[in-house]
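Attaching the record inline, Q. Sequence:
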Amino acid sequence: MDTKETAKEAAMGLVKGSKGFIKEFKEFISRGNVVDMAVGVIIGGAFTAIVNSLVNDIFNPLLGLITGGTDFSTLSFGFGDAQFMYGSFITAVINFLLVALVLFLVIKVMSKLHRKKEEAPAAPTTKVCPFCKSEISIEATRCPHCTSLLEEEEKKSA
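Structure, as predicted:
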């Protein structure tokens, strides 16, 4: 009978533990940074296809025109039984440099688009009473705190 009760208690503890685990998992998933990361990975996958197409369909043909149609991927040399495909390596390096250039240009354009223009400081709406040093409206001609006439003081200081 003790074995059955122990097994039952263990099963109840497992159920309670799984509820806590599920709750923790829900909290983890609902955090903003996890969702942001997931969106970034998905957009990164789509962006990779765009960059690869730009490199393979635009830049590589231009590079072929510049180099006289040379296909670097076929360059190789043999040494004994080993065949060294150094052209494939050159092609991979060129593709890396082109992808890095495209990413640099895209990031540069994006940062220009997101740059905030500096706003001109707003015109002041208040001034300080020269008599009582209270803050008052910029348009005030008499201080509401000490009732001093402000126009006379402004004329004297000007």
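Residues 6 and 108 are 65 Å apart (CA to CA). The beta strands are 77-79, 82-84, 126-128, 135-137.

More tomorrow.
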